[in-house]
Fold this protein.
Amino acid sequence: MNLLTFDIEEWFIEQRHNGRIEKYAEFDRYLDLILNILDERQLKATFFCVGEMGSLFPEVIRKIQKRDHEVGCHSNIHTWLNKMTEVECREDTHRAVDSLEQCIGEKVKSYRAPAFSIGESNKWAFEILAENGIERDASIFPAARDFGGFPRFGQKTPCIVEYNGVRLKEFPVCTTVVLGKDMAYSGGGYFRFFPLGFIQKEIKKSSYSMCYFHIGDLVQESHGVMSKAAYESYFKEPGTVKARYVRYLKSNLGKKRAFPKMMKLIDSIDFINVKQADKVIDWDATTVVKI
Ligand SMILES: [Zn+2]
């Protein structure tokens, strides 16, 4: 099975960090292009949305819901979970789920942490997700990556994750071995880096794939290297010159052709969303990963 997911935050991030309101129309246009091709292909995706968008940009969230896609949660204000205390994370998750549920009038059951930020140091996040009625999680990146990842998780296909008596259905990022190294290939910067033919081949030969996109990952932006203050406020890490240049290069890699490349991928693979996948998986037969 091949899962298609989008993380929806650009409108909120733009309002909070840059304030260029003319950008909203551009994001709307890209979202419409995505929704239209999904309709044409009769595919449903999961859109993990930042909670605050439920009150600040409800029309964006409702447009996604109206086209019958799944609305999932992508935290409240896109702060990475491993940068929050347990108390802050509990508050953030509660606000996010509440805001989205008020917006769409139905229960939100799927979740993805910003930047896949659930790992060894904050496994307690699973308890918080369960307390808020989340049943399906897509936050595990089971390989090494910048800013975390959870290489020891070990499972690269849907499984049950168990922590402190709480169980959730987990949909991890899929990986493949490249030059002896376990790597993601089906979303974010990895999607931009690898050739489309390679990605299609990997997806077709696997029994499970998880594709993930941000509109901001795919649209060319000419913004320069972040200032030290902006970097530190966003990433909550020291904004050294090296760190800021590496981020700049990685975030712009392969952007020029990324959007049409994603549209071609959608046109060539039969995707389903997380909610649909939940129904077809025989959960009793899947691995239970105790963390
Ligand atoms: Zn995000």
In short: The longest strand covers residues 2-8. Residues 28 and 173 are 27 Å apart (CA to CA). Residues 7, 9, 74, 78, 114, 214 surround zinc ion (CB under 6 Å).
